[in-house]
């Protein structure tokens, strides 16, 4: 519906109010009504489901409903005291309609259609309708004239609010999306399907999908899952409820399904998440933990002029930093020839400093190499490692391959006879088997790499190497920040990865994207700021909505053909960043796989080369 065309029609129409009626339904009473003329139904009190020949509505999300002449209205499932007002009116149009209306016949058809006015101004609508009802009961020509004046004001408010929502959301679906989100937040425990949600809001599944894709870049059900996962995190952190009760509390009868879904969206099982938060003392000291959800870079890696990242300040800051680090790493300590190592799955006591280290999440290879430690074996990245910087590629070629992080090769690991195994929640399913092979330390893979580097530095007695790596990295980061400031051009950048027939957009919460947005202060596009998780899938057609000045595109052997096809599409070619030649293709494994000082330092170099090179 074009709101502008409707405004033009209302301006040209001759209106006559035929009646105003008030009605109250008893609980579970139903009403079927054939509209003798156009009408507006305004909710006064209570809730009910309202159905027309075109759509279904719920009064909670649609406080005003319009029904065209001859349409049928059915009201059912009313709560106690459901009360409403009906304003019946007739409209007559002149033979010559305003020339600004592009499709007059279509506009008139829309005028007589059934539609809802989204929630948001219901108090004003209700107040104006009640006032018109009171005046209508006076049965005097002057009062009837005042009713007509107020009816115009009522329609003007409806249309201005619908126009505002259309302009703000880029389409008429914006009001429906707002109502859907609000309803999801209030009723996330209820069993839902896309069709039941659309029916409750009085719209079609197609319109609902389109509205969410345009506004958030993901589907309505993905949005609901995000809300449920956030509620699950709160219950895991704040309560002692068993997993089955938490699953039930957020709307999942099957706790096994909930656990798989939670791991998919958070990278670890609910049990591991709870243990991790307990070990890290999240509620007691959020400032000491660096993570995508609680970023606090300045605590561990300060950027001030007197910070330890300057070479001359490392010695002076060492004691304070070590005290802070020990607190933040939950007490890793060397005492009486033993090493106490608190981790996600408990506390491990090592009899001596490990020499043979096996890595089951390849991001730690980067960190260990930066500390001067070469693991004896590591899982491999699913995407090709060809093209990695020499400081990563050369050592990798000499390590024993231990499968993938999703499916480690336990036999090869056992034959390797490691002194210690480093793993993450990806190996939660086989943790007991790993522990039978060698002492196993489970780390939080989403923890900021700088915090993990300090943990590993303390664990393996490489404190100074960790500090030097951070000094070098922060000096490079400071230099780039200053150059970008001197460059003076504010740029919006997006980090994307074509994948599985769609495009993964990494949000400002993603651990690598935070380098762009948090550390360097670059602007994130609106879609990247809206996401609740670290990334979301968007269709190719939604790319122009990013409105990004620069695109960093993650490319590898798994998506090279898809990326090539996308680059040939009109949608891709019409993007502002593409037309201006401001697209950089990046090595997927480097940017989101090997998460440590070696890879991150190289990424800073690539960002500098991209943003500081003249077009």
Automatic annotation (TrEMBL):
PROSITE patterns in the cross-refs: FE_B12_PBP, HTH_ARAC_FAMILY_1, HTH_ARAC_FAMILY_2
Keywords: DNA-binding, Signal, Transcription, Transcription regulation, Transport
Annotated ranges, domain HTH araC/xylS-type: 178-276
Family annotation (Pfam families): HTH_18 (PF12833), Peripla_BP_2 (PF01497)
Chief site of localization: other
Localization in the cell: Cell envelope
Domain (Fe/B12 periplasmic-binding) ranges: 356-615
Family: Belongs to the bacterial solute-binding protein 8 family.
Name of the protein this chain belongs to: AraC family transcriptional regulator
Source organism: Paenibacillus ihbetae
